[in-house]
Design goal:
Layout (H helix, E strand, L loop, with lengths): L1 H13 L2 H8 L3 H15 L4 E4 L2 E4 L1 H10 L2
Antiparallel strand pairs: 1-2
Helix pairs in contact: 1-2, 1-3, 2-3
Length: about 70
């Protein structure tokens, strides 16, 4: 789960899954699957997405705050 949290934080910091996958040196589908596993494990939706925009949900903001500690 630590790896998934690190990936989640990178996506949140960059604001783009494709760019974050490049920064993490993994494929975009692998990153998306990692985020889905984290959402399932935490039972919270982390991001709202549309066309090319990604924003943290309130649950995602709470998890992000924990990664800053």
């Amino acid at each position: 789960m630590i790896k998934e949290l690190q990936r989640f934080k990178k996506v949140a910091d960059i604001g783009n899954i494709t760019k974050a996958s490049g920064a993490l040196f993994i494929t975009q589908p692998a990153l998306t699957q990692s985020l889905q596993r984290l959402e399932k494990e935490l039972d919270v939706k982390l991001f709202d997405t549309n066309n090319k925009s990604i924003t943290l949900t309130s649950g995602g903001q709470a998890i992000y705050a924990l990664t800053e500690k």
